[in-house]
Structures are given as structure tokens and as C-alpha cells.
Specification:
Helix 1 runs parallel beside helix 2. This protein is mainly alpha-helical. The chain is about 60% helix and about 5% strand. The protein has two domains: about 10-105, no CATH class; about 120-164. A two-stranded antiparallel ribbon has the order 1-2. It has helices at about 20-30, 70-105, 115-164, and strands at about 55, 60-65. It starts with 17 loop residues before the first helix and ends with a helix.
Length: about 160
């Protein structure tokens, strides 16, 4: 039973390798479910040389230094970290792309899908400024209408008082 990190059973098969420990740590960091005071990872260990690697026992929550196959593990960790970073960066770029698409589609002017991001941002800024000026114009109109209402109310009050 996992009492340190709430991972599903499919991740249990990875518990022996240090690369898998790194992936488990990244998953735990992503889901915010790790206890950093109890766990140490390859990039956090205070090793003086590259001959040691960190191994995480997921079920027990222990980490121990292991000097066997450290060169392969370090290369594997580097490749895994790079692949994870590349995947996260790709996801970030996709989110930005989707946000620009939503922004482009929300604008009243019809921009084609080939419009640059700078064009989309400039059009969005111009549209926001035009909306702000329309809001100010409507607020002035509301104030004028409220003044006219007060004048008419005063006039009605004066008329009813004078006729009594």
C-alpha cells in the first residue's frame, strides 16, 4: 500500500530504478502529494561524485544511495529529465497556442488562422480600449439620464406643491 505518494498501481512497476524514482518524484511534484522532508531525489542528493545514484523505495518511502550502474543511471536520468522537460515545454506551447486561438476567435474582427501572435495581441488591445471608451460613454449617458430624472422629479414635486 502506498502511504507516501498516492500513485496508481501502474506506477508500482517502476519502483526499483532511479530513473523511475525521478519520474515518480516529478509526478508527485505535479500532483503536490509528496513529503519533501522524507524523500531525496537524484538532483537533491549531496553526492561528491557521479558514482552514486539515489534509489527510492516507493512503498517504504526510503531513499538510499546505490553505487551500482551509476553511469548508466545518470545517463538514463539525464535522458529522462530531458524527455520530461521537452514534454512539459511542448504542453506549455500547446496551451499558449490554444489561448491565442481562443483570443483570436473572441475578437469581433475576423482574423485568419495565419495571423501572427503580435497581430492578435494588437487587435485584442485595440478592442479592449474601444470597449473601455464605450463604457465611459455609456456611463456619461447614464449620469445625464439620472440628472434629467432628478430634474423631472423636482419639477413634478414643484408642480404638485404649487397646485395644492
Amino acid at each position: 500500500m502506498l502511504h507516501l505518494i498516492g500513485l496508481d498501481d501502474t506506477l508500482l512497476q517502476f519502483r526499483e530504478s532511479s530513473t523511475s524514482a525521478y519520474l515518480i518524484e516529478e509526478f508527485a511534484n505535479f500532483s503536490g502529494e509528496h513529503n519533501s522532508s522524507r524523500m531525496k531525489y537524484p538532483h537533491q542528493s549531496n553526492r561528491s561524485s557521479s558514482s552514486k545514484s539515489c534509489r527510492l523505495d516507493v512503498e517504504e518511502g526510503n531513499c538510499s544511495l546505490d553505487s551500482s550502474n551509476s553511469t548508466n543511471n545518470d545517463a538514463e536520468n539525464t535522458a529522462t529529465r530531458r524527455a520530461l522537460h521537452n514534454a512539459l515545454e511542448r504542453s506549455r506551447r500547446n496551451q499558449i497556442k490554444e489561448a491565442f486561438t481562443l483570443l483570436r476567435e473572441a475578437l469581433p474582427m475576423k482574423l485568419d488562422s495565419k495571423s501572427s501572435r503580435a497581430t492578435i495581441l494588437n487587435c485584442a488591445a485595440a478592442y479592449v480600449m474601444s470597449l473601455q471608451s464605450r463604457i465611459q460613454a455609456h456611463q456619461k449617458e447614464i449620469e445625464e439620464c439620472n440628472r434629467a430624472i432628478k430634474e423631472l422629479e423636482t419639477e413634478i414635486t414643484n408642480t404638485t406643491t404649487s397646485s395644492s
